[in-house]
């Protein structure tokens, strides 16, 4: 069982892993903690935004939209590979997902199919939204993929987790397709190599 790292430690870990970090406003205190707990944390979840334009994407993920208030993640990874920190604490990114998947993440075992939405993921996952249209055609530039690898490894390194603690939204919640355009298996392999 892992407690979330402090905001300052999170920032320090991302930078130590070589991520280019942009701090957005009072990100350290921007969260949804008043609606429920954050932690214990068990993994990292990767998403795509279905948006275009870095400034618009960062703003949307910080503030949210009608029906889903922000922050919508902890960090927004734009096409240029920069990691924009928009919130810290409970964030509206994971939603309800499969308890069997959570158990597999905790045990760092192969993931079962996600066929239920019965567990609060916002409580248990660090979340990174990645600027992409999510249509399978919008490219994933190498700096962006490398940033996903770096932030995931940074969190895993802090908690002593392996690459198996990093999942995509599509592996957590039935009906989700993100991230689309690369496989989580290939990303986990990159993270595994970085953690060696």
From TrEMBL:
Residues of the N-acetylmuramoyl-L-alanine amidase domain: 27-180
Residue stretches spanning the membrane: none
Pfam family, one: Amidase_2
A molecular function (GO) term: N-acetylmuramoyl-L-alanine amidase activity
Gene3D superfamilies: Peptidoglycan recognition protein-like
Organism domain of life: Bacteria
GO biological processes: peptidoglycan catabolic process
Protein name per the record: N-acetylmuramoyl-L-alanine amidase
């Amino acid at each position: 069982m892992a407690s979330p790292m402090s905001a300052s430690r999170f920032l320090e870990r991302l930078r130590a892993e070589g991520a280019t970090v942009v701090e957005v406003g009072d990100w350290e205190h921007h969260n949804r903690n008043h609606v429920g707990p954050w932690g214990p944390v068990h993994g990292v979840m990767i998403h795509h935004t279905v948006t275009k334009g870095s400034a618009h994407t960062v703003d949307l993920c910080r503030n949210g939209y009608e029906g889903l208030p922000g922050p919508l993640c902890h960090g927004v990874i734009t096409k240029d590979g920069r990691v924009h920190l928009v919130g810290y604490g409970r964030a509206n990114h994971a939603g309800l997902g499969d308890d069997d998947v959570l158990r597999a993440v905790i045990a760092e075992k192969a993931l079962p199919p996600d066929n239920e939405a019965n567990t609060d993921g916002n409580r248990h996952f660090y979340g990174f939204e990645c600027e992409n249209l999510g249509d399978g055609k919008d490219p994933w530039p190498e700096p962006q993929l490398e940033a996903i690898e770096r932030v995931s490894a940074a969190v895993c390194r802090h908690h002593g987790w392996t690459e198996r603690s990093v999942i995509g939204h599509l592996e957590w919640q039935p009906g989700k397709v993100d991230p689309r355009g690369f496989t989580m298996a290939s990303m986990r392999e990159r993270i595994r190599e970085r953690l060696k």
